[in-house]
Amino acid sequence: MSEYDFMLKRIQKLIIDVPDFPKSGILFKDISPIFSDQSELRNLITAQARFIKNNGRDFDKIVAIESRGFLLGALLAYETGLPLVLARKAGKLPRETVSAAYGLEYGSDKIEIHTSDIKQDDHILIVDDVLATGGTASAVADIVDSLGGKVAGFWFLMEVKGLEGQDSLINNCPFIDASDIEVVLS
Question: Could you give the angle at the alpha carbon of 110 between the alpha carbons of 143 and 82, nearest 5°?
Fold first, then answer.
C-alpha cells in the first residue's frame, strides 16, 4: 500500500458518523476533526492540489459549494493558485446572482452564484465535501453553464454510497462523464 493510500486511511478514520442528523434517518459525516489535524489536512490538500494541477485539465476557477465545501475549496484554491468562486444558499450573496433549485436527500433548497464571477468559457472545477444525491452539484453546474462557463470537473472528499450521486451528475450534466468526477475517499 502506498503512502498516499495510508494517508487516505488516516483521513477516513478522522471522520465521525453522526446518526439522525440533521434529520432522523440521515447519517451525517462530520469532517471537522480533519481540520483539527493540521498534519493530515496539509497532506490531503497538498496531494489533491497536485492531482488537480497535473490531471491534464486546465481549470480556470474553483467553485466551492456552501458550506463545508468552502473550507476545502478555499484550501485547494490557495494551494493551486486558482481563483475561488462561492456557491451560496439563496439570499446570502450581495450582488446580482443566478440561482438554481435542487433536491436534497432530506428536502430541497436553492443555490446562487454572482453573475460576474463566471466568465464565458471559464473552465470550472466544482468542489464540495460530500457527494450525496448530486442535486446540489448539478444545480451549481447548471448555473455555471447558464453563465457561459464550462464544467471541467467535480471534486468531492467523499460520497454517500447508495444515493447514486455520480450517476445523477452524469445524467444531469451531459457535458461530463465518470472520469470528470473525483471522489477522494471512496
Answer: 45
* Beta strands in 16-122, from DSSP E residues, in sequence order: 16-19, 27-30, 61-65, 84-89, 97-104, 107-114
CATH of 57-185, one of 3.40.50.11260, 3.40.50.2020, 3.40.50.700, 3.40.50.10950: 3.40.50.2020
Determine whether 95 is an active site residue: no
Amino acid identity, residue 50? R
Question: Residues 52-81: pLDDT tens digits?
Answer: 998 778 899 999 999 999 999 999 999 999
**Catalytic residue chosen out of the listed positions 40, 68, 88, 159:** 68
Whether residue 57 lies in the annotated active site: no
- Mean pLDDT score, 3-31: 93
Residue 63 forms beta bridges with which residues? 85, 126
Is residue 157 a contact partner of residue 129, using CB atoms and an 8 Å limit? yes
- Cell numbers standing for residue 146: 447558464
110, 97 contact by CB (below 8 A): no
Of 66, 88, 95, 105, the catalytic one is: 105
Residue type, 87: A
Whole-model pTM?
0.94
